[in-house]
Structures are given as C-alpha cells and as structure tokens.
Amino acid sequence: MAKDNVPFHAIMFPASLLAANEDYILLKHLMATEYLNYEDTKFSKSRGIGVFGTDARDTGIPSDVWRFYLAYVRPETQDSNFNWVDLATKNNSELLNNFGNFVNRALVFVERYFESKYHQ
C-alpha cells in the first residue's frame, strides 16, 4: 500500500467498522511504502502507463523474477522507479550471478564435506 492510502486505511475504514457495531478485528499495524514510479513517471492505469497484472503475465518473465525485482526496488524510504533495463540488469547480476554463485558454493560444500548427502 502506498503512502497516499494511509489516511483512509488508518482512519476512515476503521471508523466505519467501529460504527457498524460488529465485532470486527481492527488493525494493529499499518505498513505503507513510498511511490513506485514507472520509467520516471507515475503509474496510471487510465492512461496505460505502467506494467499491470496481465502485462506482467504476457511478458513471459517468471513470477519469481517479478517478485524478486519488486521486492528489490520496494520504495521503503523514498520513491523508487521501475525500469525495464534495471529489471534485466538486476535479474542477471543479483539473481542469476550472485544467487547462482551462492547455490553453486553451497552444493560444492555439501559435496566436499557431506559426501553429497543431506539430512532432512
């Protein structure tokens, strides 16, 4: 949830739940992020600016890559930017190279010290 939705979800929605006199469980913590922009402009569904669910699906990029990249560029302390070139770069350098290197080292370690066996 982005920072512009905080007033509604922190004040208006809980107030409407309280006014209903039902036993709704109210939120205890609310997390929000700064804005994630698209190629240096605001996402806008009405103007067709950005990448949305079906667009992401139609790219053929695996969902794990999308999850990794969006978590990587998550705008926690300042606005951040979605960029196609950056997506490819982060996928190749961070996910494939660095993570692949880690997995390779872990497998070599298991092979060397545990005779290629692991216990569940």
Tag the structure with descriptive keywords:
single chain, 120 residues, mainly alpha, 2 domains, two-stranded parallel sheet, extended, aminoacyl-trna synthetase, ATP-binding, Methionyl/Leucyl_tRNA_Synth, ligase
What layout of secondary structure does this protein have?
Elements: H1 6-19, E1 36-38, H2 53-59, H3 63-72, E2 80-82, H4 84-114
Parallel strand pairs: 1-2
What features would you describe in this structure?
Residues 1-106 form the Methionyl/Leucyl tRNA synthetase domain. Pfam families: tRNA-synt_1g. One of its GO terms (cellular component) is cytosol. This protein has 120 residues and is mainly α. It folds into two domains: 1-32, no CATH class; 37-114, no CATH class. Helix content is 52%, strand content 5%. The protein is built from four helices and two strands, in the order H-E-H-H-E-H. The protein has helices spanning 6-19, 53-59, 63-72, 84-114, and strands at residues 36-38, 80-82. It has a two-stranded parallel sheet with strand order 1-2. Helix 3 packs across helix 4 (84-114). The longest helix is centred in the C-terminal third of the chain and has 31 residues, at 84-114. The two termini are 38 Å apart. The mean pLDDT is 93.
Quick structural summary:
By secondary structure, the chain is mainly alpha-helical. 52% of the residues lie in helices and 5% in strands. It has two domains: 1-32, no CATH class; 37-114, no CATH class.
Helix fraction bin: 40-55%
SSE string, helix = H, strand = E? HEHHEH
State which percent range the strand residues make up.
5-15%
Using the CA coordinates, give the radius of gyration: 21 Å
Mean pLDDT over the full residue set: 93
Low-confidence stretches: none
Enumerate how many helices there are, as a single number: 4
Got a strand count? 2
For the record, the count of structural domains works out to 2
- Sheet having the most strands: 2 strands, parallel
Distance between the termini: 38 Å
What shape does the CA trace take? extended
Order of strands side by side in the largest beta sheet? 1-2
Class derived from helix and strand content: mainly alpha
Keywords: Aminoacyl-tRNA synthetase, ATP-binding, Ligase, Nucleotide-binding, Protein biosynthesis
Organism: Apis cerana
GO biological process, one term: methionyl-tRNA aminoacylation
Protein name: Methionyl-tRNA synthetase, cytoplasmic
